[in-house]
Amino acid sequence: MQKKVLIRCDASKDIGLGHITRCLVLANHFRDEGYKVFFAIKDYGIAKEKLIEQKFDILLANEKEFDYFNWIKNIVEQKKINLFIGDIRDGFPIDLITYMKNKNILTIAIDEPSEYAKECALCFYPPHANIDESLYKGKVYKGLEYVILRPEFYKEFEKKKNNIPNILVMMGGTDTFNLTLPIIKQIDKNDKKFEISVILSDKHKDINQLNKFVETSKHQIKVYNEVKDMSSFLNKIDFAISLFGSVAYEYLIKNIPSIYIQHEKEISTTHNYFINNNYAIVNDMENINIDKLFILFFQLRFKCKIFELIKEVNNGN
């Protein structure tokens, strides 16, 4: 009998694309292994667009009469779910995890600070996660090998040798805080010789101003509205400036030293792992230190072990 997987995640302009991107990696892996995969999401356009594009079944929440427990419970019962994956930070009810465990459903949390993760059978976290493992009832795994990247990132690659350093500026898939243009203007003041690659949607409110600025900049700037193959694209990048997020691990595996912009809504301790290992530095908007960025260097490779662990535990159920 075909096993069924339920994934609970969302994507929106405010949430960003990181959660759904890594969940799609999991979903494709399970589909390739013969599982039927369902996504339970709220009615956000970006999320639906991504899932429709990859032909996954979508189960939308009823926002007008939203009842979290019964929404998921009904899905579990109607679709006969065997495995649940949570990558959501919106108050997912702990009682739902208890309910699913009582039905012998394998429950998994991905990089979750939420309370429900403490009830899950398996929890996977990046190495910098600040959690108290003694509070978790299931197994907790921490490390780079429990970070989820798209399969192409784990392939062998050759970096392009640039005569002039190429700095990527990317403030997330949606640039919710409108940081791209101010950062470009800030680093353009630096007299060092470098080129700038920018990824910004052509629908972003600052795109026209950015295109005008490119014409007068003292550095060569190339603007990309969309990148189909990020893994290959990053092979030509020497350094990066971004908000901290899932892209940090893409930079790591591509050996790209980075500056992470300290945004007011972020917690600085999140970055400590990267700073302490000289993978990155953290700056605020007014003090972007290109000179310090240029002296960072590292070589690193890692592989994801999540799939084999889930398979091992799931086969034992």
TrEMBL record:
SUPFAM superfamilies: UDP-Glycosyltransferase/glycogen phosphorylase (SSF53756)
Highest taxon listed in the record's lineage: Bacteria
Protein name: UDP-2,4-diacetamido-2,4, 6-trideoxy-beta-L-altropyranose hydrolase
